[in-house]
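With this grant's support, the team has encoded backbone shapes as discrete tokens. A representative record is reproduced below.
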Amino acid sequence: MKRYLRLVALLVVLTLSVGMLSSAIYILGDITRLDLDESSSVSSKGLSEAQSLSGGEQQAEVGFEQQKPKGPVLMIKFSTRNKYLRRYAAYNYSYGFWNKPVDIESINYHGQLIPLNPSWPRTYAQVQFQVNPLANLTGHILTAQNTDNIRFNDTIQYYEEIQSFEATEQYDDPYWVSYKLYEYSDAALRASQAIGPPEALEVPRDLVSDFTILAERIVEGESTDYGKLVAIRDYLIENYEWDEEFTSAPSTIDPIRWFLYNERAGVGSHFNSAFIMLARCLGIPMRAVIGYTVDAQMEIQYVMPQQAYMWAETEFENLGWVTIDASPNNYMDSDVNITMQTTVTNITGNDPIAIRGKQFNVWGTVETLNGSAVTESQVEIMLKVNKTDVDETALIVGVGFIEAGLFNVTCDATPEILVGDYNLIAHTLETLKYRESWSDPPIKVMAETIVKITGPRQVYQGKNITYRGSIIDSSDGNPVVNASLHINYLDQVLTLTSDENGKVTFIAMFPENGKTNMSLSMFEAMYYLGSETNMGITVIVPPPDASNIISLLFSFPYNIGVALSSAIGVGFYAAKRNRRMKEEFVVEEPRARVQPKREYIGYEDGVPLEYTSYEEGIVKLFNRFYVSMQRIYPDIDETMTPREFQYVLIERMPMHADALLEDLVSSYEIAMYSNIALSQEDFKRTNATIELLIELMKSGSRD
């Protein structure tokens, strides 16, 4: 009889447990099926920072000059009188790469005069020019051969052996370069002998044999070092082609060998790398120099990344280092024309609007007064609100070269440029041949926008649900203020104005269950392009009144749950009794469950938190936090799903607490509804998240 009583009691307990669990799940909702709008926010970046000038900081690959046209990196004021501006020199060549020496000494340079070799000639021209970075730069700075003084705002490193200066921090301030310009006649160079360190004679072993045979054939009949160098230079220029669309060497063939014997075309680093290797095979020391080529005569010019270049240098006894360029791109600087011609600049076309964070194009013509096409000059494209205001600084958005009197410049409307109406200014820079001129049609700068809806995608029928909309400038992620946003759902259209955070809040109610759609849009405004987003919403029937637990348990579908629970309980008991009868003589060791180390963590009413698993601990931590928030905010009630609870709290916490709330709710969902085993670290992180949220709530608002 006692056995039957125990059986009846077991069935009652199981029935009540299953029924109450089913009710709880129905009341809270199936969180695992909630599809929330949790897309990541748009990140923004400011002006792109050039990490270094082209060519690499420690090594330069043969063919590195092959680049797509880009905007200017530097602006140079005053004539450099030298077309080759250096960054660093390299001696070691290894299978397609020129490597900067790693064991050379440097000194801290802070503006002192650098003495040059006293054996060099005393006749020279002292030249000065200014370099203006147009972005944040790092690494080796642009200077000239035989630089003896630099006026730089910060301390830099000077490498005497390779005549190079390196900035250890980012820099964007203008600096002055002063250098000694030596000019030697062919007779003086032929009378001298090439000298240099041992590393300036190194040739890879697999290149020595073939290259030596070729070099000796090229210089046959020449007796001086300089004569041999001229012979090799002329041979390369006459027999190989300058081609920026060269075919790169296969991985199994050295790029210099491929250039000389297969492709027979390339850019400056191909020609001059071959030049250096052929000279070294004849015992003439040479080194590679990585830098930029510029116009030696222009008073103002911009330096583009595509002007990156590599040339060769040889040191001659009692003369110093001499630049020798062995590529067809080595042209003689044109004679100075002291008669400057007046130019006429005309923008013949441009994109009607410039969108922040994107590029736009400007094209036009530059001619002299008699209609001749202007050449060998540059045009800068600028934006200015008031073209007659001399105190307003124009924003340079692009620079291009004038070819046959035509220019076509791709400009960057960076996120730093404010939306608004501007004058688009094309400025032809003054050269020794041409005077400057201007063209200034209007242009509008606009921004693309991104709108977003946040709120639950699964809601109860007939319940008021809070949704939030936001609008940002896609170029920088900043909010768009006072924008008219249109919310469309069911047959309703709401028009709201975004606040100082670019946000709106509205309450929606869905009278019928089923699936529907909600959209948020902004029409094109004066300086902002329109955008739209949509959200699918599932409306479900709310749960019955949970206060009448008996009627709830025995109503559909819970009466089915009760019946199933009873059947399962009876089956379970019968199977267990049958197994016990069969194994009545077998002593079974009880299975021991390893419990986590119990920790007591309490912040609510000073009551310690007890739990038997980390999953249970995380659920209890979340429930305590939920109760705490109910005491502070009366509109939080127990019928909310965790995600609804999260969205209610988002607007009441500091801006940077959003990620913490997301982490807390996600941890709760994993602990409550998944089969994933959680660790002590997960529990500690959840507790720390809650404590940090509480501290943030105490310390400030969302401002």
